[in-house]
């Protein structure tokens, strides 16, 4: 078992240094990291917040597939959306019904995002952040006015006296039972979505910082300079004489990637030119930036 734990931990420490686990432990939020290159796509890191949210001890989560959170009432369409996002290697957000270790259901906003190798665009890990979704507040009712359902019950009981309406009561019984057994769909609020994005940004910032220690620099979006047309030598020479910090982007290419970065910009940000070219400027957004800046 200890050998298996070391193998799972090496998925992170070999790419982000030995200290990354301690740093991740200090981050707030409920999240996990998986390694798609390992058999079974296992969980290789689980936060303290995730253990508290789900009731699973952290050691019990390591090595298992994240499917263990799904249950009988988990929406198949939501699961299919997550599976498709993993195949397409893209970010995805969805409200989904998960299950705790004790079998109790709970709604979470799942924020899924791939972690890319900056140099070649390979997916090294998937990050999954879970933000609990609170139940909606009950609608306000005016004092003395009967609730809609109560009024319907009274009407049903009155109609039971009519021979042709004897089935109405049975319909209400079926509805009542179904309401008790089914989990009501919950909608993630804007605050939930911002919290998920903020947590993910903090994690990416940590992974990026520690990956520089091993030279296997990672980023949140695929930073691939393949297909970026090279600037002419004369233009490169002219741009190189400019001492200011700046980048150039090409709005005619998909996602408007960076096609040139000045030396002063590289010195200011600490990125290499290989990391910059092909990226959208959004990757410079820090962990505290609003989702609306993305």
From TrEMBL:
The keyword Transferase does not apply. GO terms for biological process: response to blue light. Keywords: Chromophore, Flavoprotein, FMN, Photoreceptor protein, Receptor, Sensory transduction. One of its GO terms (molecular function) is photoreceptor activity. Residues 24-65, 258-278 form the PAS domain. It comes from the Eukaryota. PROSITE patterns: PAS (PS50112). InterPro entries: PAC (IPR001610), PAS (IPR000014), PAS-like_dom_sf (IPR035965). This is PAS domain-containing protein. It comes from Triticum aestivum (Wheat).
